[in-house]
C-alpha cells in the first residue's frame, strides 16, 4: 500500500513539475518566488508545499524529469540487427525534438549559477547522450547502413537547425505548420543519414503518432 501511495505522490510531483517547465525555460528561475512557482503549477501555495519543501527541491525535480527522460533511451549493442538502427533513429529524433524545444540557454545559465551540482548532473547526462549518439552514427557507417558523413555535423543540426525551424517566428514567417516542419526534418535526416538501399529498414508508420503528439503539445503552448 505504501508503494502505491509513493507512486501516486511521485506522479503528482511530475505533473506539477511539467506545468512549470515552460516557465523556467522561457524566463529562468532566479527571480521566481515560491508564490510564482505555485501559480505556474496552477495550485495553491499550501498544495505546492505538500510536494516541495523548497525552491531548490523544485529545480532538482525539473532536472530529474529531464535526466529520467534522457535515460529512457534504450542501450544498444554492436550485435543489434539492421532494423534496430531504424528504431533508434526514430527514438533519437523524438528526443531531439523534445530536448531542443525545452532545455534553453536561459535555464542552463541560471542552473549553473544557482545550483552548480544540478547543472553538472544535467550536462553530464546530455554529454552521455551525445556520446551515445555519435557512437550510433559511427556504428551505422561501419556497418554500411549510414552514409559516410560527419556525425558531429548531424548533432550540430539538431542543436542549431532544429531549434530554429521549430521556433514560432520561423513558422509564422514561412507560413508553415509545426507538423509539416517536423515531417520535413524527419525525412531530411532520414535521407541524409541512411544509404538509399537501407531506407526500407525505417518503418515510417511509427513516426506518425510521435509527430502528432509533439504537434499537440506544441499547439497547447501557443
Write a structural description.
This protein has 222 residues and is mainly α. The protein has two domains: 1-72, Tetracycline Repressor, domain 2 (Orthogonal Bundle); 74-222, no CATH class. It is 76% helix and 0% strand. It contains eleven helices and no strands. Helix 4 (55-71) packs parallel to helix 7 (116-142), helix 5 (82-102) packs across helix 8 and helix 6 (105-114) crosses helix 7. The longest helix is centred in the middle third of the chain and has 27 residues, at 116-142.
List the helices and strands and how they pair.
Layout: H1 2-27, H2 34-41, H3 45-51, H4 55-71, H5 82-102, H6 105-114, H7 116-142, H8 151-165, H9 168-174, H10 178-193, H11 207-220
Number of separate strands:
0
Average of per-residue pLDDT values: 89
Rounded to the nearest angstrom, the radius of gyration is: 19 Å
N-to-C span:
40 Å
Low-confidence stretches: none
Class computed from helices, strands and strand pairing: mainly alpha
The gross shape turns out to be: globular
Helix content: over 70%
Tally of discrete structural domains: 2
Number of helices: 11
Largest sheet report: none
Q: Name the beta content range.
A: under 5%
* Sequence of secondary-structure elements: HHHHHHHHHHH
From the structure provided, what is the oligomeric state, counting identical versus distinct chains?
Answer: single chain
Amino acid at each position: 500500500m505504501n508503494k502505491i501511495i509513493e507512486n501516486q505522490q511521485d506522479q503528482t510531483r511530475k505533473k506539477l513539475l511539467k506545468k512549470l517547465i515552460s516557465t523556467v525555460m522561457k524566463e529562468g528561475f532566479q527571480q521566481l518566488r515560491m508564490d510564482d512557482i505555485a501559480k505556474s503549477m496552477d495550485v495553491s501555495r499550501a498544495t505546492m508545499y505538500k510536494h516541495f519543501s523548497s525552491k531548490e527541491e523544485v529545480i532538482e525535480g525539473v532536472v530529474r524529469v529531464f535526466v529520467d527522460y534522457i535515460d529512457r533511451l534504450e542501450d544498444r549493442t554492436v550485435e543489434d540487427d539492421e532494423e534496430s538502427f531504424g528504431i533508434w533513429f526514430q527514438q533519437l529524433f523524438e528526443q531531439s525534438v523534445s530536448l531542443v524545444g525545452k532545455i534553453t540557454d536561459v535555464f542552463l545559465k541560471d542552473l549553473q549559477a544557482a545550483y552548480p551540482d544540478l547543472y553538472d548532473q544535467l550536462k553530464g547526462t546530455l554529454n552521455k547522450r551525445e556520446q551515445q549518439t555519435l557512437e550510433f552514427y559511427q556504428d551505422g557507417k561501419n556497418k554500411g547502413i549510414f552514409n559516410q558523413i560527419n556525425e558531429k555535423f548531424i548533432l550540430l543540426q539538431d542543436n542549431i537547425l532544429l531549434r530554429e525551424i521549430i521556433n514560432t517566428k520561423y513558422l509564422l514567417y514561412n507560413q508553415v505548420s509545426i507538423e509539416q516542419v517536423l515531417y520535413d526534418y524527419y525525412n531530411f535526416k532520414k535521407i541524409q543519414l541512411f544509404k538509399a538501399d537501407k531506407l526500407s529498414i525505417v518503418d515510417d508508420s511509427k513516426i506518425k503518432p510521435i509527430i502528432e503528439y509533439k504537434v499537440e503539445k506544441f499547439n497547447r503552448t501557443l
